[in-house]
């Protein structure tokens, strides 16, 4: 489910703050490393709430579903984690990152 807010669509950090101000539990996923043909650059963000609503992108659709699932767990546990995806990884075909690149995404709860 995609959520539209009054915050600028190109500013995921503003969206995260807007959602927090509204009382929603929120996680922020940030691309921290790429290699090869990863579709989003380092610093790209995906904001996720506890219901699975999201804004932004960390991979142009390749791994967002997996990142959203992990982000919901991060919201529940409060424990950040770094996710890695790539064609050399057994999850590559499951999440669809078959373009030849690799990506690392750091997911943390926004307090």
Automatic annotation (TrEMBL):
Pfam hit, one: XdhC_CoxI
Superkingdom: Bacteria
Transmembrane parts of this sequence: none
InterPro entries documented for this protein: MoCofactor_Util/Proc, XdhC_CoxI
Stretches assigned to the XdhC- CoxI domain: 19-86
Protein name (database record): XdhC family protein
Native organism: Microbaculum marinum
């Amino acid at each position: 489910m995609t959520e539209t807010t009054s915050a600028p669509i190109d500013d995921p950090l503003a969206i995260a703050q807007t959602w927090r101000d509204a009382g929603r539990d929120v996680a922020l996923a940030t691309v921290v490393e790429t290699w090869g043909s990863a579709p989003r650059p380092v610093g790209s963000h995906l904001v996720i709430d506890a219901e699975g609503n999201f804004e932004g992108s960390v991979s142009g659709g390749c791994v967002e579903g997996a990142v959203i699932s992990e982000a919901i767990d991060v919201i529940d546990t409060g424990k950040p984690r770094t996710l890695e995806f790539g064609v050399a990884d057994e999850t590559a075909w499951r999440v669809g990152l078959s373009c030849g690149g690799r990506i690392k995404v750091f997911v943390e709860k926004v307090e």
